[in-house]
Amino acid sequence: MKRLLSAVTAATVTLTTLTACSGAKMLEAFAPSDSVIVERDVVFDREHDLALDVYRPRGADDAPLVVFFWGGSWQTGDRSTYGFLGRTLASRGLVVMIPDYRTYPAVRYPAFLHDSARAVAWAREHARDYGADPSRLSLLGHSAGAYNAAMLVADGRYLEAAGGSRRWISAWAGLAGPYDFLPLKDAALKRIFEPAEPLSSSQPINWVDREVPPTLLVVSADDPVVDPRNTERMAARLKALGRPVELLRVDNLRHAWLVVSLLDVFPFDDQVRSTVTQFLLHAPSTAPSSDAERLVRD
After folding, report:
1. Cα(69)–Cα(154) distance, rounded to whole angstroms?
2. Out of 31, 41, 57, 139, which could bridge 84 as a Cys pair, Cβ 3.0 to 4.6 Å?
3. How many CB atoms lie within 10 A of CB 34?
């Protein structure tokens, strides 16, 4: 009980300012550690001085690979905040890579999408170095990070520019994502997305098609930061296109709590944690079947 109370206190501090280093370290301290190997500061883009952290199960061999994009309105945040997520998912059998991407005011749209795409390309190229299966590559994002993931799976230009293809992606999951958030009312967001021409081209919902991989969307009715209707509309659009989409609605979780609830030391309903974990663990392989490979060779 004392450990649980201390954990809740740590989470409360962290949620006050999720990107604070002390709060992030407190959360990570309660995540699984003995079964997880961590490699930090792995450079994936020397030109822009961008790195990622890798969390993998001990003895990982052909494990599913997940690239996680954090949120912060494309203005704040960094990978070090999310060690708790990396450790938790790795303890359940996933190899997790958490990259940084550049934010405003250093860059504006779509630079952070190109950064994210380069991270995915690097992750796939080096998957086997960390015991992961490159054909079982999924994307996971929270808030602005869910937007990044959505754009990569919906608009193929970004992964193509990184030398890849959105067909690389087995599945993707978005937590409290902004997918359809026009008109822009916030002054900073107006400046961030000003380069988009037309502005509607910056919205993931306008890009999704019948090639979007299996999708999990998680939303809380009590989110005061990103309108839950973003998720509802995205789910409806994907369903109308005939794409496999799972929508998980929860109550009583604020915006940041939705991602923190992936930790298993808090008295949350296990629904988010178990649904996200199982979805990522069972992502389908994008590798061609042996029959398809034989036809290509012939």
Report:
1. 16
2. 31
3. 6
| Residue 194, domain extent | 35-297
CA-to-CA distance for 66 and 83, rounded, in angstroms? 14
**CATH code of the domain in which 279 resides:** 3.40.50.1820
Q: What is this structure's pTM?
A: 0.90
Q: What is the mean pLDDT of residues 180-198?
A: 97
Q: What is the DSSP letter of 107?
A: -
Residue 108 has pLDDT above 90, yes or no: yes
What is the count of structural domains for the chain?
1
CA–CA distance, 295 with 140 (Å, rounded to integer): 33
| 252: in domain | yes
Residue 234: name the closest of 189, 167, 178 by CA.
178
Residue 6 is predicted with a pLDDT of 41
Contacts of 75 (CB under 8 A, 6+ apart): 103, 104, 105, 188, 192
